[in-house]
Amino acid sequence: MKYTKLGNSDLTVSRICMGCMGFGDSGRGQHSWTLDETRSREIIKRGLELGVNFYDTAIAYQSGTSEQYLGRALRDFARREDVVVATKFLPRTQPEIEAGFTGQQHIETMLNTSLKNLGMDYVDLYIYHMWDWQTPIYDVLDGLHRMVKAGKARYIGISNCFAWQLAQAIAIAEREGFTKFVSVQGHYNLIFREEEREMVPYCAQENIALTPYSALASGRLSRLPGENDTKRAAEDAYAKFKYDATAAQDNVIIARVAELAARRGVSMTEISLAWLLTKVTAPVVGATKLRHIEGAAKAVELALTDDEIAWLEAPYVPHPLAGVMAQNKPANAKEKHGWSTGDQKIESR
């Protein structure tokens, strides 16, 4: 495993971040395909054995049970100081807004709940899961800064935002002396490259780490269409919503991934992640089988040539926004969505 600094922080992270959305009680959330605790622990343990020290979860994942599974596994298999743990919080609910519950209060409540779920005193990275159009960004930044000052979060990150929103937040943080975001977790992979328009160059300029989710496009970049379909492939309606509309053009790229993998004698997972690793700090890679995290770890050691990278990229055409970035708009801010944590409901990646 290779390691690097996470943006402007002093956190040293593995080049692969294990995404924990696939862990949690399948009866308590949006997804029916998540792993129970026994199987989740096996994968987390294997990740640690492979040198993965960076783990990403969220309070939204299966009503907090992903956080619980991760926290218990790390307590049993690792020392707290040897791992970097990230979790995320949701926007305020409509009942909170109507009751006058401030953004600052909301963040503190969310983080306290996540810490309880994780069984930890602090998280290394606390991530703003998606833009809250009904809460001023000043209140969000103030609330996050208070949590850093209280020692409950070491650093803060943001997910599912536009570059202009990140730039606005950075400017306010600089003006007010608030803690600044050190990472961005956006939707970025070989068949969805819209982050390259503005976010990638902006983050490079500001030394903000890119830790993208959907690194393998919900498995589409790890196998040919229809090949070795999984429970997730069959049941993940949200992934289908994100990718099915552009499948014809995406399959051209997927075929190139398969061809290059065959030429190099490696897996499609290794090719897809090796490409992404030339662009970002640490992709968030979900794993529901041991071979998933094993393949991700191998990708760190695979170096693609400039010609191979250009060949993989050549068929790409611009895509419409998909997923959270397409759905999370001001007009939709009061609508109820699909994921829940208690009385919270939100649609996310």
How is this structure best described in words?
The chain is α/β, with parallel strands linked by helices. Helix content is 41%, strand content 13%. It is built from 14 helices and twelve strands. The chain has an eight-stranded parallel beta sheet, with helices on one face. Strands 1-2 form a two-stranded antiparallel sheet. It has a two-stranded antiparallel sheet with strand order 11-12. α5 links the parallel β6 and β7 (153-159). α1 runs parallel beside α12, α2 (65-77) crosses α4 (103-118) and α11 crosses α12. The chain is globular. The relative contact order is 0.15. Mean pLDDT is 93; it is low at 336-349.
Q: What is the compact description of this entry?
A:
With 349 residues, this protein is of the alpha/beta class. The chain has helices spanning 37-49, 65-77, 94-98, 103-118, 137-149, 163-176, 199-206, 231-235, 237-243, 247-264, 268-277, 290-299, 306-313, 324-327; strands at 3-5, 12-14, 17-19, 54-56, 84-89, 123-128, 153-159, 181-185, 209-210, 284-286, 339-341, 344-346. Helix 1 packs across helix 2.
Fold blueprint:
Blueprint: E1 3-5, E2 12-14, E3 17-19, H1 37-49, E4 54-56, H2 65-77, E5 84-89, H3 94-98, H4 103-118, E6 123-128, H5 137-149, E7 153-159, H6 163-176, E8 181-185, H7 199-206, E9 209-210, H8 231-235, H9 237-243, H10 247-264, H11 268-277, E10 284-286, H12 290-299, H13 306-313, H14 324-327, E11 339-341, E12 344-346
Parallel strand pairs: 3-4, 3-10, 4-5, 5-6, 6-7, 7-8, 8-9
Antiparallel strand pairs: 1-2, 11-12
Helix pairs in contact: 1-2, 1-12, 2-4, 4-5, 10-11, 10-13, 11-12
